[in-house]
Structure formats: structure tokens, C-alpha cells
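Long-time lurker, first post.

We've been arguing in lab meeting about whether coenzyme A would sit comfortably in this protein at all. Half the group thinks yes, half thinks no, and nobody has a model to point at. So I'm putting the question to the forum: if I give you the sequence and the SMILES, can you give me back a predicted structure of the complex? Inputs are below. Any interpretation is welcome too.
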Amino acid sequence: MIDWLLARSATGLEAGWLHPQERREARRFCDPRRRGQYLLGRHAAKQLIAARARRLGQKAPAPCALRIERTGAGWPRALGADGEPLNLCLSISHSGDLALVAIDASADGAIGADCERVEPRSASFSADYFTARERALIAGIDPAIGASLLWCLKEAALKALRCGLRRDTRTVELRALGSTGADGWRPAEIALAEGGTLEARWRLLDRGRLCAALARAGAQAPRSSST
Ligand SMILES: CC(C)(COP(=O)(O)OP(=O)(O)OC[C@H]1O[C@@H](n2cnc3c(N)ncnc32)[C@H](O)[C@@H]1OP(=O)(O)O)[C@@H](O)C(=O)NCCC(=O)NCCS
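Top reply:
Settle the argument with this. Predicted structure of the protein with coenzyme A, as C-alpha cells:
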């Protein structure tokens, strides 16, 4: 199951929760906005990891003992106090002063989370990044929501594949959008150019101003729960 959290603004975060390596990394950001995003994403990830441990009746790890590392390819992973990767996968996304973070402790696969402001995208943007089939699929939806959810689902899928925008966005193609599920997330099916599909979910948050998507590369569809 994917646990997720939408967190707002890094200002006012209590001190002492950063791992020394994260503190060093945070100092390297020249842009305060980007530094704030880095901090907020890590803070939210540690909250999710602690909440999951408590739910399982385990002792929550001290936040400063956990490290959310950026791997060489950019995708994040959580390291425990012993410096070894925790047995879970993690994804982070930022939009302004909001961060969407998701963790999944399933044994296999990787996850992707993305959040995007709901806003119109130009015809040239759609032509460059969406396939004709996708443009037809979202044609009946409010244009700002349709384009935002499609972009959001693609970024979540590309993160779950751990390649990000190094890969052509048209090689992960939205094939189907389902109706609302019991948990508020709507299912979506994404086909990979190399064969196979990837299950995803999307929903609006922040009073309809933000589109959020979760995707999982692996066997199971992403059931989700908020913390
Ligand atoms: C991953 C990527 C799609 C994120 O795009 P974005 O919308 O700008 O940013 P978001 O806020 O949604 O996501 C940022 C988070 O994605 C995660 N991320 C970065 N690279 C990732 C990858 N290859 N796979 C999965 N997740 C990745 C990081 O956790 C990052 O947050 P952090 O730096 O605070 O830890 C984009 O940065 C990318 O494609 N990067 C790799 C290729 C690249 O550098 N291309 C240059 C632009 S084409």
C-alpha cells in the first residue's frame, strides 16, 4: 500500500531533524525556494516513515538518524541509522510551497509521485508531450484539468521508472481513466512503449488547485492511504 502526504511550507519546521549529510546538502542550494522544497520533502518523508512504523507497532526512528538520499540518477531513497537502505520505496514532488511525498513498503517495484498546479497548457505543449490518443482521451475533460492530470500522471510514471524526463513522455501513454475510487483516487492505466502497463492513480487536492498522481512500476496497483 502507498502512504502519501501533502505537506505545506518548510518555514517553521522544528530544528534537529536533519541528518548531518542532509544538512550539508541543504546548505549547497543557492536558491532559498529550492532549499525550502528540499527540506519540506525530506521532512514529510520522515513523517510518513515514522507514521508507518507506529502503525505497525514499531518504534519510530529518530528523524535525524534517517537520511533521504538522492541517488546518482536523482531518485530518492531512505537510509536507516546504520546507513543501509530501508525496505521501502519513496517518491517526492514539489509544487510551490507544497510537497507530495509517497512511500511504499511492498517488496518489489518502485513508485512515482507527482503534483502539478491545475493550469491550462498550450496547444504546442500538448503536441510536444502528449500523443494523439491521449489528447482524444482528455478531450471531454475541462482543458486545464485534463492537461494537468495527464502531465502529472506521466511524471509520476517516469519517476516510477526512475528515469524522469530523460525519457520521451510519449513513451508512457495514458490509455484509460477510471471513475473515483472509495479513497478519492481515480485509477488510470499507462502503457509503456516497450510493452506492459503501469497502474496509476490521480486526484485533485488543495481545493481543486493541485493535481496529484501516484504510479507504481511493479506487480501491484497502487492502493493508497493518507497519513
Ligand atoms: C524527475 C523529474 C521528472 C522531476 O521533475 P519536476 O517536476 O521538476 O520536479 P518534482 O518536484 O515533481 O520532483 C522532484 C523530485 O523528483 C525526484 N527525482 C529526481 N530525479 C528522479 C528520477 N530520475 N526518478 C525518480 N524521481 C526523481 C527527487 O526526489 C526530486 O526531489 P528532491 O530533489 O527534493 O529530492 C525531472 O527533474 C527529471 O526528469 N530529472 C532527470 C533528468 C534531468 O535532469 N533532466 C533535465 C530536464 S529535461
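For your lab meeting: The radius of gyration is 17 Å. The chain has a mean pLDDT of 92. Whichever side wins, do check it experimentally.
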